[in-house]
Amino acid sequence: MTVERVWALVSLPGILFVMKEYTNNSKVGFDYEILETIEAGLVLKGIEVKAIKTGKASIKGSFVKILNGKPQLIGATISPYQPNNTPADYDPTATRMLLLSKKEISALLGLSQAQGLTLIPLKIYDTKGKLKLLIGIARGKKKYDKRRGIKKKDLARSQQRGIDD
User: Fold this and answer.
1) What's the confidence (pLDDT) of residue 76?
2) Domain 22-164, what fold?
3) How many other C-beta atoms lie within 10 A of the C-beta of residue 86?
4) What is the pLDDT of residue 8?
């Protein structure tokens, strides 16, 4: 059984693409302020692709770091597709390479070093049969910003309840 959510329908003249979302990082919106997003390809093994498509991946608590000029996804967990047939040397939390152009890498490197921004994975989705990672360029929220967000949500809920009653 596959866990798939339709993320968006993209249409070009005469062509319709369906992008399926396989996993997302739901707590990012609470902890970080997302300033910009970038799409990156993932370097994966066949068993990892199958595992992601069956919903056995998690990007909670993971981050993107640029080491030696190469962007890497650190801390993501991709559980084995079939645990009995998994190679003995398979590591579910291994660091995975990301596919970005040199221009994008240099821009990300500059932003993350100069302005103190963080690169956070937001979601893994499918585009035209290829798995992509949406990376958010984010700034960490302060405690008072988080409280302000909670207060706004509570106020909106109470107003909604007042309308429904």
Assistant:
1) 92
2) Small Protein B; Chain: A; (2.40.280)
3) 14
4) 54
CA distances from 32 to 29, 119, 132 (A): 6, 10, 21
Structure tokens at 147: 């409280």
Q: Tell me the CA distances in angstroms from 64 to 71, 109, 122, one per residue in order.
A: 7, 11, 11
* Residue whose tokens read 């429904």: 164
DSSP H stretches of helix in the chain: 28-31, 46-53, 102-114, 143-164
- The average pLDDT across 154-161 equals 85
Please name which of 140, 146, 149 lies closest in space to residue 34, comparing C-alpha atoms. Answer: 140
C-alpha atoms less than 13 angstroms from C-alpha of 17 in its C-beta half-sphere: 12
Q: How far apart are CA 41 and CA 106, in angstroms?
A: 16
